[in-house]
Design brief:
Elements (H helix, E strand, L loop, with lengths): L4 E4 L10 H4 L7 E5 L2 H4 L6 H20 L3 E5 L10 H12 L3 E5 L4 H14 L3 E4 L8 H8 L7 H12 L3 E2 L2 E2 L30 H13 L16 H22 L16 H6 L4 H13 L5 H25 L18 H4 L5 H13 L4 H15 L3 H11 L5 H12 L16 H7 L20 H12 L1 H4 L6 H9 L2 H17 L1
Parallel strand pairs: 1-2, 1-4, 2-3, 4-5
Antiparallel strand pairs: 6-7
Helix pairs in contact: 3-8, 4-5, 7-12, 9-11, 9-12, 11-12, 12-17, 14-15, 15-19, 16-17, 19-22
């Protein structure tokens, strides 16, 4: 039967609540889903990330069909697959002759631009609906941002709290404060009980995808062995249940901590499922709030978790759409050094980098402090080209979609936007890493040594970063005391720091 509408569902739109599906009729409309090589090869995507997306798509296809939808699904290895969205949509229009193409708004600027070309290219009406999974629409965020001197997440977050009613007593925040972050910076000890997020055994559909990815993308980064991410709504719900019951109570206290051999600690590992649609973000937040109301999790943990979703996640999406397409080329600090090879191999003597990168290559996962204060901090201090850093993060993490990863990397981590997203560079010496982790105890370098053969490179790199970027960030009010400390140092001490950093950078 000739469909009225052809609904094109992308790989991060795996929800029955997508606007295009909600507005359609299975009896008259048809769904198109495609696996395309061009998307898998935009950057060096981790093998487990590719498995996650393709397996989740195939399971969602089956869910749609079970619900009565007609689904045209083109696998990556189909002989007729053109390898691009444009090619596969064109083939489907020719094959099915729909009256109209319908999309839920793509999450990435590049894909939205492609959708914008289809009406003329294919001579068919195209309708695009807003993605209602997000709490703050793109126009709404632009209206919030207009005329503001600074776009600080904290103020946006308060608006989202009021809008959702989460952790609110009338117009007052629960506990009398909006933010309990000051209570969420405890270093973790090895004597703590560590929950383990569920690892889901692959079914036959997922096993087939693992085989395909192993054969087709054998040169891509990361390990395939041990894949255990949820790829269905039901299994994602199990992971949510486990987090709420076992990890949320201590998530707040230890969300900034890092421990060797403990990749997850009390983190939820739910972002992949939220980002592709297997979990609804507002529902996840309400479940966490319910745990607080029933006395099963403390306020600092629940507030910190909810802030990451309705605050930070929504905020970086707003920044992305407000500033693209130019944002991807931002490089305020004019950093030009190539990304070191050890970001792909983990072959470095620096224990913290070895642990964070090694874990990333094994699991396609590292928690936000490992990303920000280990791999991101090093890249910032070393002056790595931020676009290369962005492409690395986009490729290696299972939850990385450009709209959420790009502002986090270029803005928060690399300060490449000059302070639009963050009020100061997230630069730190070895002292922070030593305080918040146990990495330094097993490292060949010493965190307490400032210069010399056994001194941690983070120490000299920190002062080198500040010195070489003084013209760009020296007027930042939050760095005033730091620059005062640098200026009070003896000239010989400053020279030793800079020389040590130069020697290390030359060795990269």
């Amino acid at each position: 039967m000739k469909p009225r509408n052809l609904l094109v569902i992308f790989g991060d739109q795996l929800s029955m609540d997508m606007a295009s599906l909600k507005a359609a009729d299975p009896a008259q409309d048809h769904v198109l889903m495609v696996e395309v090589a061009a998307e898998a090869e935009t950057v060096n995507h981790h093998k487990q990330k590719l498995v996650f997306f393709f397996a989740a798509m195939r399971h969602f296809r089956d869910e749609l069909r079970a619900a009565g939808w007609s689904v045209d699904y083109v696998t990556l290895d189909a002989p007729e697959n053109t390898g691009t969205f444009e090619g596969e949509i064109a083939r489907a229009v020719e094959r099915l002759s729909p009256d109209r193409l319908v999309f839920t708004a793509p999450s990435e600027w590049r894909v939205e631009r492609m959708v914008g070309t289809l009406e003329n290219a294919l001579d068919i009406p195209v309708k695009t609906l807003e993605d209602t999974r997000f709490l703050c629409g793109r126009n709404e965020f632009a209206a919030w941002a207009e005329g503001r001197r600074g776009l600080r997440m904290e103020y946006f977050y308060r608006e989202m709290r009021r809008k959702t009613g989460l952790l609110m007593n009338d117009d007052k925040p629960e506990g009398g404060r909006w933010n309990f972050d000051a209570e969420n910076r405890k270093p973790a000890g090895t004597d703590l009980f560590m929950p383990r997020p569920p690892r889901i055994k692959p079914d036959q559909t997922t096993a087939d995808v693992i085989t395909m990815v192993g054969e087709t993308f054998d040169t891509h980064c990361g390990k395939l062995k041990g894949f255990g991410y949820a790829v269905t709504r039901a299994d994602a719900e199990k992971c949510l249940d486990y987090f709420i019951s076992h990890a949320l109570p201590l998530f707040g206290d230890y969300q900034d901590a890092m421990l060797t051999g403990e990749p997850y600690l009390y983190h939820s590992v739910l972002s992949p499922y939220i980002n592709v649609g297997l979990l609804d973000p507002l529902d996840v937040c309400r479940r966490a709030e319910e745990a607080y109301k029933k006395g099963r999790a403390p306020l600092n943990a629940v507030e910190g978790f909810i802030r990451q979703i309705i605050g930070w996640r929504e905020y970086v999406r707003g920044i992305y759409w407000l500033k693209m397409p130019d944002y991807v080329d931002a490089n305020h600090l004019e950093a030009k050094r190539p990304l070191p090879d050890f970001y792909w191999t983990a072959e470095t003597e620096m224990a913290c980098l070895k642990a964070a990168i090694g874990q990333t290559m094994e699991l396609a996962y590292a928690h936000h402090i490992q990303r920000l204060m280990i791999t991101g901090n090093f890249a910032l201090l070393a002056g790595i080209n931020p676009k290369e850093v962005h492409e690395w993060y986009l490729g290696v993490y299972v939850d990385a979609l450009e709209w959420v990863e790009l502002p986090n990397t270029l803005g928060m981590s690399q300060f490449a936007d000059g302070g639009l997203l963050g009020s100061k560079p997230y630069a730190a010496s070895a002292n922070y890493i030593n305080k918040m982790s146990d990495y330094c105890s097993g490292c060949r370098f010493r965190a307490d040594r400032k210069v010399g053969e056994d001194a941690c490179p983070f120490n000299a790199l920190y002062w080198h970063f500040l010195d070489r970027n003084r013209d760009r960030i020296g007027s930042n009010a939050r760095l005033r005391n730091t620059y005062s400390t640098w200026d009070r140092m003896h000239a010989d001490t400053r020279a030793d720091y800079l020389a040590a950093a130069e020697r290390f950078l030359a060795s990269l």
